[in-house]
């Protein structure tokens, strides 16, 4: 089963502007429940949110204080509408990823149903991302356990937060080595080939024991039907996921899985947001099938975007 690190505090009650991203964790969990799939994704809610001290790993004190106080620029640099509840939720989403990674290191496949993170910079938010949750989580893991991770970032938009933080955090290159922030380029078959060449490096580094866990950033906005994306179609997108899960499954040892974490990241369809959630569900069920041999009943509601 895929252990899921979710708490209701991860989601503000009021939508924070254009993007559905802040609501995405709740919407995904509701979709799993609606399709009677929740038992395959048992929820662990017994963990604490990050403190401001944790967030200081990846961000300046000025930004952190300004954001939580709702000061102009800092409060809305992420492109989202600020509220105290939304600000509080940011402490939980980053912590969800950290605890999912921590649990995966015990031989588990885990889910952190979180969007965003990968556009935030040390001194501000950006592109619907408030804090660099993956940077905070991986640096904490490295400092506590001496382990390094890789990010397979399939979001349509380059995950700049890791690269933008390398000069800000002295040991980030050890926590997430420069080769380990994988962002495929191109479209269609070119995108797939670029992914494969970069993923081969990750597999090599795993065998060399230089990478100890992998975070798969699902990125539904890389689908050609998305409002803000368009690199691959759904079949191509899922074929990439199949490659990832199949190769990582080979690295497991019996019931002990290679430490793997799934996250959500982007997806922005206004015409049919259910298709964004559906793509994520198909991704999760593919992972469940490959890692655990579990086939489930699920009827896809994915719709191709109509051309006008």
From TrEMBL:
Gene3D superfamilies: Histone deacetylase domain. Pfam families: Hist_deacetyl. Residues 21-164 form the Histone deacetylase domain. GO terms for molecular function: histone deacetylase activity. Signal peptide: none annotated. It comes from the Bacteria. One of its GO terms (biological process) is epigenetic regulation of gene expression. This is Histone deacetylase domain-containing protein.
